[in-house]
Specification:
The structure holds two protein chains of two kinds.
Chain A (H helix, E strand, L loop, with lengths): L21 E7 L6 H13 L4 E3 L17 H14 L2 E5 L6 H7 L2 E4 L7 H11 L5 E5 L6 H13 L5 E5 L15 H10 L4 E3 L1 H5 L5 H10 L4 E5 L17 H17 L3 E2 L1
Parallel strand pairs in A: 1-2, 1-8, 1-9, 2-3, 3-4, 4-5, 5-6, 6-7, 7-8
Chain B lengths: L2 H43 L6 H14 L6 H20 L7
Classes of the chains: A alpha/beta, B mainly alpha.
Chain lengths: 270, 98
């Protein structure tokens, strides 16, 4: 039996981020720490054969005393490096006041799990990106149901936003061996209910790099349309979430590792 | 009321409850069948099942029609469950497993 026949692989965004019959990989460091660090990590993403780089300029950290990101300086590094290497930039926006600024430096605005239910932010993003090629990666809240996640996306689209991509990033459960529990059922349910593409962030879900590749393979099988993984050229030195970042060698092999699984689902890893 | 008379009365009322339940079950399945027809048309047109605007209209109408003694908020909860359980049947049907 051809497994791919039962899989919805024809979803897409109008800005080309998600294309039918493909599996989109977004990679990059948790945070932009410096020009040198980001350019090294971004070059690895490019060399690994991927077109979208991620990196945080504004970081929603659990503690207000943890490193909060470089802010506008980080955004400038993102757009400069992205432009030089021909990579599209995905970065988080946390504050409604920063939406326009982030749009100047990034193609894709990420809404983090902690802001999924910040409906005024979602509405403003929807209105700001209306009629543009900018897209949104909407992460699922740490304890949000699929229904709540889809309704959050609706806030963006109802305000005129397009190119919304849902991102499953693990939910809070009693399990402590992983940081969160990756809920792959939610990927399938969301895809059955809507036409929105759904990608998976196995890095934040697992919180440890040894699970990232196996969970990425599982995401392909669970009908996800793509992946957002953290990677760093020097994970041990990373200012944030180093233990979950894929080192360069692992990132280089990712496309080849995933392609057989993607192929079985009728997709090409891009 | 004697004990025997009371038992008889309860029995009578329970039979009415059972009758209403049968009617509810019949009506719910009829509702599910009509929703299936809509879902089939939607699947052919490539329209997603998730339609929160329409759901909200249905939930508001359930409250509007409600004359009590069931609380409006409870009627909304009951209808939300009905909508979602019937929707669950739809997302498991072949049309959506392309």
């Amino acid at each position: 039996m051809d497994v791919s026949a039962s899989v919805k692989t024809d979803v897409k965004t109008h800005n080309g981020m998600i294309r039918p019959d493909t599996f989109r990989v977004i990679a990059g460091p948790c945070t932009v720490e410096s020009y040198e660090q980001f350019v090294a990590s971004a070059k690895a993403v490019k060399q690994a054969g991927f077109e979208y780089v991620r990196g945080g300029a504004f970081k929603p950290r659990t503690s207000p005393y943890s490193f909060q990101g470089l802010g506008e300086e980080g955004l400038k590094i993102l757009s400069e490096v992205g432009g030089d290497l021909g990579l599209k930039v995905v970065t988080e926006v946390m504050d409604p006041y920063d939406i326009e600024l982030v749009m100047e430096h990034a193609e894709i605005l990420q809404v983090g799990a902690r802001n999924m239910a910040n409906f005024s932010l979602l509405r403003r993003i929807g209105a700001a990106i209306a009629g543009t090629d900018h897209g949104v990666v909407l992460k699922r809240g740490l304890s949000a149901t699929v229904e709540e996640w889809l309704l959050a996306a609706e806030y963006i689209t109802a305000a005129g936003g397009d190119n919304v991509v849902l991102c499953e990033r693990g939910i809070r459960t009693f399990e402590t061996s992983t940081r969160f529990t990756l809920d792959l059922s939610a990927v399938i349910v969301a895809k059955r209910l809507t036409d929105l593409p759904v990608i998976v962030d196995p890095s934040h879900a697992a919180g440890r790099r040894d699970l990232v590749v196996p969970l990425s393979k599982a995401s392909v099988a669970a009908e996800a349309d793509g992946l957002m993984v953290e990677s760093h050229h020097e994970p041990q030195e990373a200012l944030c979430d180093g233990e979950q970042a894929l080192p360069v060698e692992a990132l280089m092999g990712l496309k080849d590792v995933l392609q057989p699984f993607a192929g079985a689902m009728g997709r090409e890893v891009i | 009321m004697t004990d025997a008379r009371m038992q008889e009365k309860i029995q009578e009322l329970r039979e009415r409850v059972d009758e209403v339940d049968r009617e509810l079950i019949r009506a719910l399945n009829e509702r599910a069948r009509v929703v299936q027809e809509i879902a089939t048309i939607k699947a052919e047109a490539g329209i997603p099942i998730f339609d929160p605007k329409r759901e909200e209209e249905i939930l508001q109408r359930a409250v509007e029609y409600n004359e009590g003694p069931i609380y409006d908020s409870s009627m909304r909860d009951i209808f939300e469950l009905i909508l979602h359980r019937i929707r669950d049947i739809e997302i498991q049907r072949g049309e959506y497993q392309r």
